[in-house]
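Quick note —
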Amino acid sequence: MKKSLKHALLLAFTVLGSGLSFAGGREEPMADPKTLLKMVEGLEKSGDERFTSSKPPKENGISYQLSSIEFIGSVERGKERFLIASAFYIRSRNPGRDTPPARGHTFMIVFRPDFSIAAGSRADISGCRMDGNRLMGEDGVVADFDSRDVSVRHHGYAGLDDLPYFFSDRITDKQWEDDEFIKREVEAEEARKRKVEEEERKR
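Predicted structure written out below.
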């Protein structure tokens, strides 16, 4: 067993305990049964301090660790595919003291197929589920990842704490300032929507 995967297994069973979960239910088959373990490994290898369990220096023994992770589902658009998860981290209280209390931080994580991180934000999507490419909450659609709206492609998903747009057609700052480029992209998106609507009417 590779050292990195062994580390992920140890972390999953010693730190997370029963915190590993699938939004669709534990009984459903997975294309890759090690998806969650690979997500944990991807978080630890990311180098992003938000997603890496550690004991930060100069913080009097306080620890910051992954407490639980939930696989929400996948997003597929064209040839691109991503995995969506909700991760909960805890910053512990000071050793030997009850105050200040421990603090929790929930993140939405978007993984690439190789389990590297494509995007992340402080959005709490625990308990959500995927319906096609739409992220659904108790009150309806939280985000539609089929959207190619130019504002979303540049600014990200406002309803998900400005989660960065993670598809390859992201609009750069330079492109955003190009009025002719934006006009062409708006027209292309309107044409795409009309085509989708026509296809749905034919069904």
